Amino acid sequence: MRFDSGWCNSARRCESPHFNQRPLNEVSLLVIHNISLPAGCFGLPYIDQLFQGCLDTNADSSFAPLQGLQVSAHFLIRRNGERVQYVSCNDRAWHAGVSRYGERDNCNDFSIGIELEGTDTEPYTPEQYQSLIELTQALLVEYPLLSIERIVGHCDIAPMRKTDPGQSFDWEGYLGKLKEYTQALRP
């Protein structure tokens, strides 16, 4: 897997207008999210439309609060493992909202956001974990300020607002595979 100007060659490119430049050109945090539109429904075009700013909020009654929302993520991993990229990793996607990591606010400034198509309570698929692990491995190589210790859930940086990726996310399995990978890289 390679990156060209922050774009991953193994992801379908679906550009979002909802981004801007990073203030310090720093990528040092990876944030895992989940999303489904409508909630609990998978494989529909609405996530792409939301991140591209063209969601028809009349398509489902639950979309009304999304009217005018400007939001994006760097990546989405669909249930079948497909990767979609909306914003270059070198730019600031608008995924974290009001957030804090350690002593720093505004996590969008220095993070990459990966959305998993899913919910807090429904298990993610083996294809999603495999795709996420491969993407994370490539990001760890491409962005040396990232590390396994700097991978968090949205719930960790916005605990009073967010719960994703939820109790259904297998942190132990995901981080375990990444640790195996990083240990294999050491001489």
Automatic annotation (TrEMBL):
Where is it localised? Cytoplasm
* Protein origin, superkingdom: Bacteria
* All copies of domain N-acetylmuramoyl-L-alanine amidase, residue ranges: 16-166
Q: Where are the transmembrane segments?
A: none
Sorted keywords for this record are: Cell wall biogenesis/degradation, Cytoplasm, Hydrolase, Metal-binding, Zinc
EC numbers = 3.5.1.28
The reactions it catalyses are: Hydrolyzes the link between N-acetylmuramoyl residues and L-amino acid residues in certain cell-wall glycopeptides
Q: Supply one GO molecular-function term.
A: N-acetylmuramoyl-L-alanine amidase activity
Q: Name one Pfam family in it.
A: Amidase_2
Cofactor(s) the protein requires to work: Zn(2+)
Location (main, coarse): cytoplasm
- Top-tier EC class: hydrolase
Q: Which family does it belong to?
A: Belongs to the N-acetylmuramoyl-L-alanine amidase 2 family.
PANTHER family in the record: 1,6-ANHYDRO-N-ACETYLMURAMYL-L-ALANINE AMIDASE AMPD, N-ACETYLMURAMOYL-L-ALANINE AMIDASE AMID
What protein is this chain from? Answer: 1,6-anhydro-N-acetylmuramyl-L-alanine amidase AmpD
Natural source organism: Shewanella scandinavica
